[in-house]
Structures are given as structure tokens and as C-alpha cells.
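Problem 3 from the worked examples.
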Amino acid sequence: MREFLVEITTDIPEGTDPAEVDRRRAAEAARAKELAASGNLIRLWRPVGELRSIGVWRAADEAELHEKVLGTLPLRPWMTLAVTAVESHPNDPGGPDGTA
């Protein structure tokens, strides 16, 4: 499995029924839990004061990430994504051996 840093900005179209937004947000939360349980969603943050998310996601490759992971998010039609494939750095203090 490869890891990806994904920046997500969600822009709800003007005039969208608030009930539809609420329904999709609830479904999004449920799907995020499923993706976390399956090992595809590792971490997710929201920058302070911003309406975007930054997360670490896992998939076999970028195609699978888009098709079978991010593409299954209920809010995906309203999302803009920036995907960067990442790999471990030899000086990462959180690396496999726990030392830099």
C-alpha cells in the first residue's frame, strides 16, 4: 500500500437544499469511519479557521485512491482534491524503528 497526502476543499453549490447537505455530511462521516476501519484513511486534520481537510490516505496506487476510496465519498462531487504520493523519510522520528 502507498500513502498519499490529500488536501480536500469542499464547495457546496449555491442553492443546494440544506437537507441534502446534512444527509451527505452524515453519510460522509459514516463512510470515513468505514475507510478508517479498512486502513484507507489514516489521519485527517482541518487547518484552524479553514474549511478544508488534510489527510493521510492509503491505497495500492493513485488510480485506486481516486476510484475506490475518494470516489466513494458522498461529498466527492463537491470536492476539489490535491493528491501527493509520499514515502517515508530516513529522518522521520515516527519511522519504522522509532528513531531519526
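Problem 4, a separate protein:
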Amino acid sequence: MLVILIFFSTFALVENLNDKKIAVLLSGGVDSSVVLYELVRQGLCPDCFYIKIGPDQHEEWDCSSEEDMEMATAVSHKYGCRLEVVDCHQEYWNQVTAYTMEKVKSGYTPNPDVMCNRLIKFGAFDEKRGHDYDLIATGHYAQTEIDEWGRKWLCTSPDPVKDQTDFLAQIYDWQLRKALFPIGHMMKEEVREIAELEHLVNAKRKDSQGICFLGKINYNDYIRRYLGEQPGDVLELETGKRIGKHKGLWFHTIGQRHGLGFGGGPWFVVKKDMQQNILYVSKGYDPQTAYKQEFRIHDLHLLTAPIDTKDICFKIRHTPEFHHAILEAEEGGAYIVHSDKPIHGVAPGQFCVLYDEAHHRCYGSGEITV
């Protein structure tokens, strides 16, 4: 079987991109800045866009958007490219924030960054400006390849720590066809080295952490702003003994250990009773109640084509590790994931991201239900 691999090397860029109209999403970080460098050094002159999704100016949140904008402006000017600000603030708060708050209020563990890629970076932006472009280039650590039928696949980065296919596994097929990841074949160290050699203003800037726009804002403060607090009891699962009080079940996730603040631990969150407003915990460094070997997923979203095998790899959080499993289809469109070993911290609302056995191609992802 002939498989045509498109890696964004020097030759692939020249051969495949010269006749394309490209938009680069500049975030102010080093990754997207090196994306622009990689395209410009091939003789291309893409248009650059900074997507504004942070709080309004009158908000008192400590947001890094002003610094991001300064960095993006400096880098675009360095390479003589036009920079335009696209305001997707309202779309973010109407769609991504609404999704996040609905999920956490129901006791689930959502991933706002996953939905930000689908609804904002490749969604709202495309509606406003991206539709005028053939390709949208981002600084994601991911690759793509084209098979013999011309289908485009999302593939993992060689950097296992930085690989971001899990954050991209909910985008639509048409969004994937427009996606361009010029640094996806690189290791993070290579990107930093290029940035320093090019004397980019953000070469030594630290990577952003947490939700895509929050910057230094604490995630719990983000939730508290919209849902407030709802105190309740914390009980030991095995004995029913009262351990303490929580400020709201939405501040906790299954498998959580840090930040609980209870003595005599360590304690792990193992269950949430939304109706009774009770948080259940187990004690110990490795309690069996914190693990699951089988769990269900629903609303399986496939990126390119149906899964033609039961043997898969998967991950349920942004970590370098992949797990092997058997995928069993159920009536009604749900699936059971039979992991070959127990997995820590399986939480409803998380996305289970599915890959081939070599964890090379990403099939897509589904939401964990139990």
C-alpha cells in the first residue's frame, strides 16, 4: 500500500505551499512565532492574525493578552507580514465558557482547550476571516499525512511531551483539511534553538499553562466567577467517615490528589454525588478505588475515517503515555474501552482520544460517561 506522507520539511513547504493562501495564527508564544519564520524562510508571505478571546478591558482579571499582542506584533513586523486582530471574545464566552460551565456544574471534567480549537481557532476565526484562506497555520505539535485515497490524517508529533493531537481530536474534517502545522515535526528544543538564532523577542518566554486564554488566572477562580461556591461534606468512601468540607464539587475532579487540604492523607477524589453534594475520597498513595480498567465513551467524533480495528491506543489526559485497549461497540453508538491495565483518574466528561496501535494516527475522541 502506497502512503504519501506530507511532513512540513523544507522541500514539502516549497512544493506544496507556494500556490496557497495561508493565514498564521500568532499567539505571542514562541511556537507560533517559529511557524511564521518557517514559512517566511521558504519565500512565503502569509497574513498573520491574533485572536482576541480574553476578558474585556474593563474586567479586573490578570490576563496576559496585552503582552501576547505585543509579542505577536513584534514578530510579524520582524518578517514584514501584516497582522490583524480578530475579536472572538464573544464567541468564546458564548460557546466555550458555556460548554465548560455546563459540564462542571453537572459534575463532569471538561477540557475547554479542546473545544477552543474546534469552536474558535478553526471555527469562529474561519467564519470571520479564515474562509478567505486555503490553510490555517498554527503552532500545534502535531503532523498530518495524506493516504492513497487523498484523505488527510492527524498524526502525532515526535515530541511525546509536547504532542497536542489530543487537543485537536475534536476538530471537524473540513477544519483538519485546512490545518497546517509547520513545526509539528520538531522537538521543542529545536523550536527554542531556532527562536534564539533568529533573536525572536519571545525566544525565552515560558510556555503558557492551563486554559488557553487565562494566563495567570486560576482555573478555580474562573469557575467560581460563574458558579460561585456550594459547600458540602467530604466522606471517606470505604468507611463513610466525614473528612471535612468542600466548597463546591465543580472545584474537584476524579483522581485529584493535590489541593484537597485534608490532614492524615494522602487523599484521592474517587467519586462525586451531585444530588447529595458529597465528595468521596480514598486514603493512600495508590488506592484501587482511583483506578478503572473499563469505561464507556459516547459521541465518538472521528476525524478522517471509521475505525477498522478493535485494537487501539488511547489517552485520557495530556500526558506522554499511551495505553493499549480493545474498543467494543455497543448499540446506540456508545463504546466500551477495555484497557489492558487499570487507568488512574478516569472521570466522566474527559475526552478519551483514540489512536492506532502504533499511536501514530489519531482517529478522534469521545466523551467518557462512566
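Solution to problem 4. Residues 1-15 have pLDDT under 50 and may be disordered. The CA atoms of residues 212 and 302 lie 24 Å apart.
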